[in-house]
What we know:
The structure is a single chain. The strands form five sheets. This protein has a seven-stranded mixed β-sheet, with helices on both faces. It has a four-stranded antiparallel β-sheet with strand order 13-14-17-16, with helices on one face. It has two domains: 53-300, Aspartate Aminotransferase, domain 2 (3-Layer(aba) Sandwich), CATH 3.40.640; 309-400, Aspartate Aminotransferase, domain 1. By secondary structure, the chain is an alpha/beta fold. 43% of the residues are buried. The protein has helices spanning 26-41, 61-68, 81-92, 110-122, 127-130, 144-154, 176-185, 205-208, 239-249, 291-306, 309-327, 356-363, 387-400; strands at residues 2-3, 6-7, 10-11, 13-14, 23-24, 75-77, 101-105, 131-134, 158-164, 189-193, 212-215, 230-233, 333-335, 345-350, 366-367, 369-371, 375-379. A hairpin with a 3-residue loop joins strand 16 (369-371) and strand 17 (375-379). Bound molecules: pyridoxal-5'-phosphate (PLP). Pyridoxal-5'-phosphate is lined by residues 80-82, 109, 111-112, 164, 168, 193, 195-196, 216, 229. Pyridoxal-5'-phosphate (PLP) binds next to helix 3 and helix 4.
Amino acid sequence: xxxxxxxxxxxxxxxxxxxxxxxxxxxxxxxxxxxxxxxxxxxxxxxxxxxxxxxxxxxxxxxxxxxxxxxxxxxxxxxxxxxxxxxxxxxxxxxxxxxxxxxxxxxxxxxxxxxxxxxxxxxxxxxxxxxxxxxxxxxxxxxxxxxxxxxxxxxxxxxxxxxxxxxxxxxxxxxxxxxxxxxxxxxxxxxxxxxxxxxxxxxxxxxxxxxxxxxxxxxxxxxxxxxxxxxxxxxxxxxxxxxxxxxxxxxxxxxxxxxxxxxxxxxxxxxxxxxxxxxxxxxxxxxxxxxxxxxxxxxxxxxxxxxxxxxxxxxxxxxxxxxxxxxxxxxxxxxxxxxxxxxxxxxxxxxxxxxxxxxxxxxxxxxxxxxxxxxxxxxxxxxxxxxxxxxxxxxxxxxxx
Length: 401
Ligand SMILES: Cc1ncc(COP(=O)(O)O)c(C=O)c1O
């Protein structure tokens, strides 16, 4: 189902799906088909069947909804992860004199950290007073009890909780359900970065009551470098419910920063109108869709749609358990990822930050990655990592160690 990288005709054993997923066989065909439509029909392609570009973004909804545990109306693919953070914060981070703080991890991806810092500054606050950082433990993780206790402690001032579903460094899967239920009690909104979670772990964003989430599609979604991002907005936050609530506080407030693709389809091409957002997650779309990128995403989502997610999760558990059992007693590396809060990725801290381990693996055509300080990360993708190769990799790694 996927094209595998190679080195002088020797297959590369690829364990970097957490960074960039592999290319499905069908990707080129689906992109070329849109290129052909463009070549043959020009602008008419916007309304030409099959799959007119005008509504091409809808092709991603079914697959994304399945992976997020959401309704199709609650998800979409558009723009990029970091831009979607700002787009959705514009709606969900509405600080007031008393409630203005954001709770987030002290070790999160740089772009998230910059987004949170500049969001509070944008609203006139200082990051030192407006951001409550959760402090990581010695394994770069955060216990659920500690997170819940921090929510309790700061509940009066928290406007928003912003967390990663799966931490990019440690691979820890957070207990989103428990965190969201606790936040809900105090009417604190919850937003998530799912870059490392979507296509990796099982999620029920709708039932858990998460307010909003964003992701990129080049990791476990296999849509190619820099491919279009995506987001989730819970139906409780759709414009028709959100707008009256906010407007009753202040009639001048807007809930959504508008663009033509978020506006009512019937009048999208007219000018001189007042913004009339579609009453679902599409309201947060700004621009017309990047069709070539969405074609690549479709190729991968079609695979997820044809798969039994529970079976994929079982396979993932089997692979990571094998790795845990082989590596956990090593005195050359220590596993950072908690065994009972793991997805496809395992993070290990290498003693003395000895990066030669990566080169030794690369000489054997095994690709993993490295993040400072001395952290080797590898992931097992049930869609394309085969038993012979993942066993070979773990056995070899344990021999080298
Ligand atoms: C956890 C996480 N958040 C944010 C980003 C930034 O993504 P983008 O460049 O698509 O905005 C990445 C990129 O790898 C990431 O891993």
